[in-house]
């Protein structure tokens, strides 16, 4: 199960890497691939993007995105070279956010937006070494992407796929609440109950209630292996007010009691042999 808590770094979300302004010149790049996403906004002039066997002509106000590991080649029009701003970003949820826009591997170009998007690129570049500046750069990246979502939303039928992600995220952020219910999740994602149930089951192979239990047991396993908390504290930490009930659920899911699971992993963590003789 892909869990939000397994990676506490920025890479588990969407994070800003770098960006800059490219003044009018004859700079070109490729053919080649990049490891991250790179979003470009054309301020003036013209240029060409080649990728996936297609060729796209771009002009002022238009945008193009480079997808990770997709071969690309882009270059300016010699007679009217472009000027653009760009931003690189990555993270576990980067692809999901891009899927909420009309960008795709087959269509990496978007027309001009109702207003210029250039200022939002500049804002994200003001990232220094301090944690606060890095955090603000990530926030400004999200803000920029939100405008692409607003101005170039994916088709409604495509957006429906994301309700599953929203449900999973809500569960993974609230699994520790003993009061968490399926009805609360349905209300949080604002989708008709039976339709959400069907979509969730198709996407994950589990019911929503089973997914809640899986999240709780997964987190309990992490705590039993890495913390020195009591069984009671771990039970409360993962949404069970009754430690005995927690033990029954845990054993059914893992075939171990919580105390046996903890003891097993404590023994595995002990060094082999003892040199102090």
Automatic annotation (TrEMBL):
Keywords: DNA-binding, Transcription, Transcription regulation. The keyword Transcription regulation applies. PROSITE patterns: HTH_ARAC_FAMILY_1, HTH_ARAC_FAMILY_2. It comes from the Bacteria. Residues 165-264 form the HTH araC/xylS-type domain. Coiled coil: none annotated. Signal peptide: none annotated. The keyword Chloroplast does not apply. This is AraC family transcriptional regulator. It comes from Paenibacillus illinoisensis. The lineage of its organism: Bacteria, Bacillati, Bacillota, Bacilli, Bacillales.
């Amino acid at each position: 199960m892909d869990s939000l808590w397994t990676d506490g770094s920025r890479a588990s979300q969407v994070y800003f890497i770098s960006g800059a302004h490219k003044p009018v010149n004859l700079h070109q790049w490729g053919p080649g691939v990049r490891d991250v996403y790179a979003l470009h906004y054309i301020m003036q002039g013209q240029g060409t993007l080649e990728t996936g066997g297609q060729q796209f002509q771009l002009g002022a106000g238009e945008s193009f995105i480079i997808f990770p590991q997709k071969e690309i080649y882009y270059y300016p029009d010699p007679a009217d070279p472009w000027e653009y701003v760009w931003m690189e970003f990555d993270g576990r949820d980067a692809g999901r956010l891009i899927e909420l826009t009309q960008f795709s591997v087959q269509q990496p170009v978007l027309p001009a937006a109702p207003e210029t998007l250039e200022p939002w690129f500049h804002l994200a570049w003001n990232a220094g070494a301090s944690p606060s500046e890095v955090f603000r750069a990530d926030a400004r990246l999200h803000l920029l992407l939100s405008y692409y979502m607003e101005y170039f939303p994916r088709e409604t039928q495509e957006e429906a796929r994301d309700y599953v992600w929203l449900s999973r995220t809500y569960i993974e952020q609230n699994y520790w609440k003993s009061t968490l219910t399926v009805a609360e999740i349905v209300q949080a994602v604002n989708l008709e109950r039976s339709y959400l149930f069907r979509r969730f089951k198709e996407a994950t192979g589990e019911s929503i209630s089973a997914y809640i239990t899986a999240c709780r047991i997964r987190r309990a396993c992490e705590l039993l292996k890495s913390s020195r908390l009591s069984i009671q504290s771990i039970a409360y930490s993962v949404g069970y007010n009754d430690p005995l009930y927690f033990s029954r659920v845990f054993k059914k899911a893992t075939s171990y009691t919580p105390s046996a699971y903890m003891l097993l992993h404590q023994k595995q963590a002990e060094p082999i042999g003892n040199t102090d003789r």
